[in-house]
Amino acid sequence: MTLLAVQDLHVEFATRGLDNRLRVAQALNGVSFTVAAGEVVGLVGETGAGKSLTALAAMGLLRPPARIPHGSIRFEGREIIGLSDRELEKIRGRRMAMIVQSPLTSLDPLKRIGDQLVRMQRVHDTAHGAAARTKAEAMLAAVRIPDPARRMRAWPHELSGGMAQRVLIAMALVNDPALIIADEPTTGLDVTVQAQVLDTLRDIVAARNLGALVITHDLGVVAHYCQRVAVMFAGRIVEDGPVREVFSRPSHPYTRALIDSTPGRIAQLGWTVTGGTPPDLYDLPQGCLYRDRCPRAATACLAAPPRIAVSGTHGAACHFAGEAA
Ligand SMILES: Nc1ncnc2c1ncn2[C@@H]1O[C@H](COP(=O)(O)OP(=O)(O)OP(=O)(O)O)[C@@H](O)[C@H]1O
Ligand SMILES: [Mg+2]
């Protein structure tokens, strides 16, 4: 069952420069992908590719000057673009939840962990009082926090980075959402803790048949934790398919460059790794946005790159996708 279906999503920022001229940055330029129940989809791509914007849009969290001039985001069959904040608040934290990178800024420093988990349930009217406390403690146990009864009374500053990230996962899951969106959930944690936290997340997602969108710079994380991967470049998905297939037979030159530049499991890919700079979002060229950096670029790439089939199992937005590497 498809939980999240993003189709041809465009996001732009209109800002006025010092000369008072309106400038428009086209940050997302036709993003399409789906996440089904029971599926963990990785979203990768260099800095500025638009991964976080995609996540924020899916959560209904974009705010001006961000604008959605075109596209569709359906969650559980319902279009969420255009919903009021009141309607979105009924979905966010309830049917879909987000895990972000910095747990200590996402937790309320003035409230005990248990109280925050209870409040999360009260706000969404999923449980109250003793039932909510029991559920909160069970969630802390589920994310493998030792001695959960005692941790209920802990303050955020008393937690290690790994523990705080687990608490955030518990917060995201306490109302039994169908979809989890995790934006670099373990960046900044050391490798061992990162693996423990991701293992926990993967086990819960599998046991509850959740859908998950995991944003990461780390192709090793994708290889270990995701079934499907979407590769993003300059606000477009340039390749989408089963992880094994995409990693063994990448079709888009950008995906190839990304994989070639990954030295080991824990490589953190920054934008310089594959060489070149991203295109100017304020002045996007026609045609394929990767062509200036592409070894395969040809005249055909001056026209628009082919769109990838949304329902296909493995596709790439490249005229030469069918060619052997
Ligand atoms: N308020 C804004 N005004 C103009 N451009 C913006 C604004 N916010 C974001 N952008 C642009 O949107 C693009 C996508 O940003 P986004 O944060 O989604 O990238 P990302 O893929 O998550 O990168 P990272 O890996 O660094 O987290 C970037 O080029 C960024 O400069
Ligand atoms: Mg980001």
TrEMBL record:
It comes from Falsiroseomonas selenitidurans. Belongs to the ABC transporter superfamily. It is a peripheral membrane protein. Residues 6-259 form the ABC transporter domain. PROSITE patterns: ABC_TRANSPORTER_1 (PS00211), ABC_TRANSPORTER_2 (PS50893). Gene3D superfamilies: P-loop containing nucleotide triphosphate hydrolases (3.40.50.300). It comes from the Bacteria. This is ABC transporter ATP-binding protein. Keywords: ATP-binding, Cell membrane, Membrane, Nucleotide-binding, Transport. The keyword Transport applies. Transmembrane segments: none annotated. InterPro entries: AAA+_ATPase, ABC_Ni/Peptide_Import, ABC_transporter-like_ATP-bd, ABC_transporter-like_CS, Oligopep_ABC_C, P-loop_NTPase. It is found in: Cell inner membrane. SMART domains: AAA. GO terms for molecular function: ATP binding.
